Prior knowledge:
By secondary structure, the chain is of the alpha/beta class. 38% of the residues lie in helices and 10% in strands. It is built from 8 helices and 5 strands. It has helices spanning 4-12, 18-26, 66-69, 77-88, 126-143, 155-167, 200-204, 210-226; strands at residues 54-57, 109-112, 149-153, 184-187, 190-195. A hairpin with a 2-residue loop joins β4 and β5 (190-195).
Amino acid sequence: MRTLAELDAAVSGCRACPRLVEWREGVAGTKAAFRGEEYWARPVPGFGPADATLAVVGLAPSAHGANRTGRMFTGDPSGDFLFRVLHEVGLASQPTSTAIGDGLELYGTRLVSPVRCAPPENKPTPAERDTCRAWLAEELTLLRPTLRSIVVLGAFGWQALLPVLAAAGWPVPSPRPAFGHGTVLKLGDLRIFGCYHVSPRNVQTGLLTHTMVADVFRAATSVTASD
């Protein structure tokens, strides 16, 4: 079995989805605010320690966020919101995430995406999600010895995650439970927490607030703390 570092390296070299390869490379440097910057423009590996007790699973990198910086949820408004929450609840060393090497550390927490490349209009296809599934499955297998809870950001992540957990032997109910903010699933020694995605649209429309996200993470960390 590969180590997590070896998996991250393999993820970063993936070119399995032609549409995503073309988009992630072609969009690099097209936004005026970042013109002249060298973009990562590759699949983005997970971020966080190999012995994490909590995983965060959510959608895909953004074109000028993680696709630019090379780190999950780094360099865009979604990440700005998420890391403020993670810092407040004691899971991040600082409330900002701007670039690899900025000093940020996550405590007991690993950020994972079910699709590793930035997709056009932030909408991966079902086929792209399924092609990327093997990376998610392998990462969760490597995290399994210590993993006790997963916060899922959005319905896309929920729909991608549950089949992976079922295939790995976790007791996922059938039919699979629907996604909802505040939904909690108990799968043996693992807890799954649903949370609306931290997208600018959800935040700006008031569907999601800082307090709502912080409450979900506090519930998830209470599971890991009591293990």
